[in-house]
Design a protein that fits this description.
Mean pLDDT: 92
CATH class of the largest domain: Mainly Alpha
Shape: globular
Distance between the termini: 39 Å
CATH topology of the largest domain: Transferase(Phosphotransferase), domain 1
Radius of gyration: 20 Å
Largest sheet: 6 strands, antiparallel
Order of helices and strands: EHEEEHHEEEHHEEEEHHH
Structural class: alpha+beta
Helix content: 40-55%
Low-confidence stretches: none
Number of strands: 11
Length: 252
Amino acid sequence: MKIVFSETSSAHKSEIINIIKDFEVKGENIYGGSRNTIKTYDVGDIVINVKSFKIPNLINQIAYRFFRKSKAQRSFEYAQHLKKLNIGTPEPISYFEEFSSLSFKRSFYVSEHLESDLTFRELTQNLNYPNHEEIVRAFTRFTFQLHENQVLFLDHSPGNTLIKKEGENYKFYLVDLNRMEFKPLSFKDRIKNFARLTDKQSIIETMSDEYAQCLGEDYLKVYQMMWSETQQFQQKFHRKRKLKKKVKFWKK
């Protein structure tokens, strides 16, 4: 097993290593999907969050073993990069990789656990959420900060930004970090990055207005592209969902 800790996470190393060894039988499960599992653990005076990535398919077992960085390694390194840019994300602690001589197996990403007040998803589900417009505008400025720092968060979706109210301000923290690009962004790159967030036209209007102000662009130009990219994503998403239902039906 490959084990890497951040330079600032010298405490509790042996305890965290034991947690990974006993991952299947210990810890509080907060997410268990078909691809990944997330558990939390009390370690000293902090709570840690451990994300376990499932064993990849055969092709990716070879790719991750010899040619590509694992999802756990990318999550860890991207979190460190975000921290250097003063962009919010839970504190990265370590990552673990299991492998044999010829193939890659499981991997784990360990970070401090962050208790949030909400995610962006709640804003899409409840348009009457307290201070709704204020939070949406603050979130849009946060996304602008990402773009100005040449960060393209490819999984910029409703559940992947944790939101905490601190005093009168809202702070934003990215999670699920393994898919990112770092490069100068075109106008289309920037606007397309909003497409996965919501299908609610009123929220698109607010984000377009705030982002146009941040960018010094015409509101209508931003809105028309943001709404168009959102509709294209929604159409593609629903086509995929229908196809999956048909495939599942025939399998039965």
